[in-house]
Amino acid sequence: MNPEKLSLLSDQELLLLAERMGFYIPEGLDRLFIIEEIISALEDEDRERVFSHDGTGHVEEKKLSGGAFTSYAIPIPTCVPDRYNETMVRALPRDPSWIYAYWDIADQRRSSLGEDGNAVGLFLRVVEMGSTGDGRRSYFDIQVTLDDWKWYINIPRPGHSYRVDLCLRAIDKIKVLARSNEVRMPIHYLEGFSKLSQMTKSLLILSDLEGLHLAEPGTDNPSRILAAEEE
Amino acid sequence: MINKPSIALVLNAHLPFVRKPEYESFFEERWLFEAISETYLPLLRLFRRLDADSIPFKLSLSISPTLLSMLSDKLLGERYARYLDMQLDLAAAEKKRLGGDSVFSPLAQLYESLYRRNKEDFEQLYFRNILMGYDYYYKRGKIDLLTSAATHAFLPLYQDAPQAVLAQIETAIVTHRTIFGKIPQGFWLPQFGWYPGLGEMLANYNIRYSIVTTRGALLGKPVPQYGSFTPLQSPSGLRLFVRDAGATKAVWSETEGYPADPVYRDFYRDIGYDLDSAYVNPYLGMGVERGYTGFKYWAVTGHTNNKRPYEPVAASARVVEHARAFLSERKNSARAAAQWMKDRKPLIVCPYDAELFGHWWFEGPLFLEALFRAAARKKDEEDLQFVTLSEYDRENHDNPVSEPEFSSWGEGGYAEVWLDGSNDWVHRHSRQTMERMTELTERFPDESGLRERILNQGAREALLTMSSDWPLLLRSGQSSDFARRQIEESVANFTKIYEMLCANTVDTEWLTSLERKNNLFADINYRVFARKR
Prior knowledge:
The complex is a heterodimer. By secondary structure, chain A is of the alpha+beta class. Helices cover 31% and strands 23% of the residues of chain A.
C-alpha cells in the first residue's frame, strides 16, 4: 500500500479503511490527512511485525537459509513465457479487504483495440454478487491501461462475493472482454459477540479472541461485556 | 471417550524439493542435511530414549510428500553421508584450532558427538533410510503420521481450481501409502491454509481430520461454542482440530517465546560468518563464500552483539524449567476452559514446524523430551494427558458443526504472505500450468508407454509450480534468486512438455534426464489432474 494507491480510493473507501484500522477520523478531515494517517499506521505495523516476527515465515526462513550467493554455476536461460496470449481475467482473494486481479488481452484483440487509438477506455468492473433490493448488482469501476496487467482491488464489503470484469468502454456501449471467477471474501471480525451465550463468550475470550483482534472495532471490549454480565 | 483434559503435540516436517544431480554438490541441498542432523535424527533418538525408560509419549507428525520423496532418495542419502563426513572433518579442524580452550573446545566436541551419532544412526541403524525409524513408531501407535499437500501448495489460492487441489491431495495420499503402506487419516494444511469447502474434498478421500488456525475457527459459521478447546466438525464430516493460541505464542514467538531465552544457543552466530572465509570455504561447497556451517558457539544473550559463550549445561537445565512452565500454563488454560465446559474435557492442540525443534531452537528436542518426562510424573485429575490426533478422533465423536473461515498462519492471517508485489507473478504461470495439465488429461485420458511417462512428468512439474515455499522466499528476499529459479524451471519444463505433446514429438533424452532429476512421487498418475465429475 502506498500513497498513490490510496489516492485512488474514494473518500468513503478511505474512511472505511481508516475505521477498520481502528482510528478515529473527525468529520470533514481532508483526505490527504487521512492518507497520511493510514500510511503512518501501516509503517508502524510493519515495524512491529518485523520486530515481533511471529508469523510462519520466521521458522521457514531459517530452515531455508542459505549463503549470499547463487548456487547455479551456469545460468541456464529458462523459457518461461511472459504471457500466454489469451484474453482472460482472474481474481484471487488476498484478505478480507483486497482482491488481486490479473488479466491479459490476446494479441489479435489487442491490435484491434489499438486501432481505436485513444477512444479505447479499458477498465475493471468490480461487481458485488447477489442483488440489491431492486434486483440490481452494485459495482464500481477502476480505469486501467493497455500496459497494466494486474491490480490490487480494495473491496467495500468483506464477507461478500465479487467478480471482476475486464471491460472496454466504446463511444456508446460497454463491452465485456473477459469475466473472472467469483471470489468470496473472508471476514475480519466476529459479528454478534454480545448475542452469544455466556459460555461461548467466555471460551472465545479464553481462546484469545482479543489477542487475535477478532472483535469488531466500535463494539465494546468483549472482556468488559463479559465482566458486566457477570456482575 | 477421552475423559481427561488433553494436549496434542503436532509437528509438521516439511522441506521443498531440492535435488540437483547435475551438480557435484549443491548448497541448498544442505537444507535437508541440516534438518536431518538437527531435527529428524534427534527426534528419533528422543523416541528411543523415552521408549527405553518406558516413558509414554504421544506425538502427531506430518511428513510432507516432498520430504518423503527426498528422505527415501538414494542420491540424497549418499550426499548426506558425504555431508556428515565433511562435518566431522570440520569438527576435527575446529578441535585443532581451538586447542585447549576450556570454553570453546568442549563446544567443538559437542558438535563432533552430534555428527558422529548422526552418522552411526544414519548408516548402521537406519541403513540410510530414516523413514524406517518413523515407520516403526507409527506402526506401534506411538506416533501418528499425517500427510500434507503434495508440494505444500497454499490451497486457498486454488479454490476456484478444484482439480489442482485434488491433484495435491491425491498425490500426497498415494506417496504416503507407497512409503508407509497405510492410507493417512490426517492431513496437515500447508501454511494452515483453509477455505470453506476444502473439507468436502478431503473427506472424499477418506481423510478424517485436519487442523485449522484459531482465527479461522473463531470466525467460523456458526461460531464454535467451545472456542478452540474442542475440535469442530466441518459440514462434510471432517474433524478439525483448532490451534491453541497460547501454546503458539509460548514457543513460536521469536521475542517472547522460550527459544529467545538468553541461555539457549544463538542461531545466527555461526563460524561460517565469524571465521576467515578461506578456512570455512572447503566445508561449505564449491564457490560458497559464506553460509551456515552448523557450528555455533554463542548463546542468545540478548539484543547485543556481545554474545556470551554457549553453556550446554545451563541450557539443559533451562529446558526442563520451560517444559514444566509450558505444561503448567496449558493446564491453567484448560482449567479455566473446563469451568465452562460441563459435558466434555478441553483439548489443547499445539502445532509447530518440526524444524523449529533442533534446527532453529537447538534445545528443542530436549524440550520435547522434558515435556513427556514431566507429564509422565503427573497424576493429578486436572493434569493434561498427551494424545495423538487420531486417538482423540477415534474416541470423541460429538463435536460442534462449524465451517471455519478462510485463514492461514501467515502474517495477517490470510494470504498476504503468498500474494504480494514480490510473488504475485507466480500465480499467472502456476494457474496456466494447472489448466494446461487438466487439458492434457482430457486430450490423453488413457495413455501408456512413453506418452504416459511424459504426462506423468508433466504432472510432477505442474505440482512443483504450486509450492508455497518459493513465494514465501520471494517475499522475504532470502534465497529469492534461487526461489525464482525453481519456479521458472518448473514452468519451463512443463511448457516444453506441453508443447511436445501438442506437436506430437518427444525428446526422449531430455525426458529421461528430467525424470532422473525431478524424480519425486514415483507412483504419480497424471490423471489426478482430470476434472472430477
